[in-house]
Amino acid sequence: xxxxxxxxxxxxxxASVALAARDREQTKRIHIWARRPETRLSLKNEPxxxxxxxxxxxxxxxxxxxxxxxxxxxxxxxVERIAPALKASAIVTDVGSVKSEICRFSHDLMxxxxxxxxxxxxxxxxxxxxxxxxxxxxxxxxCFVTPIEEITDGEATEKVVAFWMGLGAxxxxxxxxxxxxxxxxxxxxPHVLASLLCSHxxxxxxxxxxFAGGGLRDTTRIAGGSPTLWREILKxxxxxVLRSVRQFQDELEAFHAALANEDFFAVAxxxxxxxxxxxxxxxx
Amino acid sequence: xxxxxxxxxxxxxxASVALAARDREQTKRIHIWARRPETRLSLKNEPxxxxxxxxxxxxxxxxxxxxxxxxxxxxxxxVERIAPALKASAIVTDVGSVKSEICRFSHDLMxxxxxxxxxxxxxxxxxxxxxxxxxxxxxxxxCFVTPIEEITDGEATEKVVAFWMGLGAxxxxxxxxxxxxxxxxxxxxPHVLASLLCSHxxxxxxxxxxFAGGGLRDTTRIAGGSPTLWREILKxxxxxVLRSVRQFQDELEAFHAALANEDFFAVAxxxxxxxxxxxxxxxx
Lengths: 284, 284
Fold this sequence. Notes:
2 copies of one chain form a homodimer. By secondary structure, chain A is α/β, with parallel strands linked by helices. Chain A has 11 helices and 9 strands. Chain A has 2 domains: 2-174, Rossmann fold (3-Layer(aba) Sandwich), CATH 3.40.50.720; 178-281, Orthogonal Bundle (6-phosphogluconate dehydrogenase C-terminal fold). In chain A, strand 4, helix 4 (72-82) and strand 5 (91-94) form a beta-alpha-beta unit. The mean pLDDT of chain A is 95. The first copy, chain A, starts with a strand and ends with a helix. In chain A, the strands form 2 sheets. The first copy, chain A, has a 6-stranded parallel β-sheet with strand order 3-2-1-4-5-6, with helices on both faces. A 3-stranded mixed β-sheet of chain A has the order 7-8-9, with helices on one face. In chain A, helix 4 (72-82) packs parallel to helix 5 (100-109) and helix 7 packs across helix 10. Chain A is globular and about 65 Å long. Helix content of chain A is 51%, strand content 14%. Chains A and B meet through helix 7, helix 8, helix 9, helix 10 and helix 11 of A and helix 7, helix 8, helix 9, helix 10 and helix 11 of B.
């Protein structure tokens, strides 16, 4: 158990971290910083919030673990801002969807005897805001923890792993570059495809949306996520996303050729391999 | 209300038609034919089944409306087989996902004073089999009815429209070619993308499936559908599917170029147009 944790910028994810930490008794005190005064006021009555501060530096004072939950492009600037305010042995982590840049830059910004260990819980929703927070958001979900090999402190990494396990997550430890490769394929590419399918259909005939069944709605649900957040995620993981899109384009071209050539054996192969993989996703 | 309807090949869709027709009192009698003897035996105790026959011809005897619910490639052969057994004024429809070939060929096979009017309810599931049938499967869902312009009998079309409305569906009447164009974009392309995303991920590292969140599972749910059924759907709607895939490839290439060129304004535009369309799908 931590003595005191700080959540910076509690939206859906940050507030869920706080809720889960309180519910599962992972910390004694929870300090919060939110950028907007109106958010700070509304948080004062939340049971997962012991004190609200108007600056991130104050919110981090004397905390053992700081979890930065802001959009990816703001994480490094926040680390830079709080670094001088950290107590010795403090650990900083985040929940950003891309890790290489964040982990490298943040590591370099940390004062002596303080540690940055990146995290990325594979949980969330196309909904946003602390009002949608859930104590069980991380239950059984993967949380990546991304120490930089031979650089990030082993003990600090262990503490971050233990924290996420304490919130119910299944932790997978990988280096930041490997993380970014994996999520480009299993998260960013699916988001791009869902968005582009919708943007393609919008260009066809928007009225056809009335005819669509539940299949299309499910297939494109994630395209309802914030365009601003996702633009920044795609920006930070640009190289890996470009690679995954290119590989998918090859797959799509091969499928097009198979169908154009009436090679229905090959068409069936695509469908069968797809079904086999999809079935693996079920039991989670 | 019909006096007697016949459901040929009741899987998920056919059994749901029967259940809904019974529940909503759309017919007095329901006759069933199933290909497998073991299925026929198991159906005898279903409340939505008044009589089970071992040949489609017998099952159609004296019926006012026949609904063919078998896979797309078997519909025309079944029409050919039952045509001589139909009573005068009998109407035959189907639930196939592709309509041009089925409607043209079936129309030509119909004896005088009998009618073929194609249907395609946009309902279903990656599950199959009559055990998953639901009386509310068509509730508020689109059902396409696809008369051939200036050929299909107007009164027969009205009766088929009324039947689906009676089951709770919202009917959209379009000609078979337009239908095939629409579903290529809103149903077959999404299926292809879900299958290819899974097949792409399978080729990367199948272990990554453990890390995936709910987003990937939802996005690819439809890829769990039967490869055999879908191979035949893609085969019958090959030209329109090829066209929709080609157009999607252009969209994907434009996105790749925008991201490669760091044109994040364009990247955000794709995401925003996608979100706008996705939001239209919500309320249904």
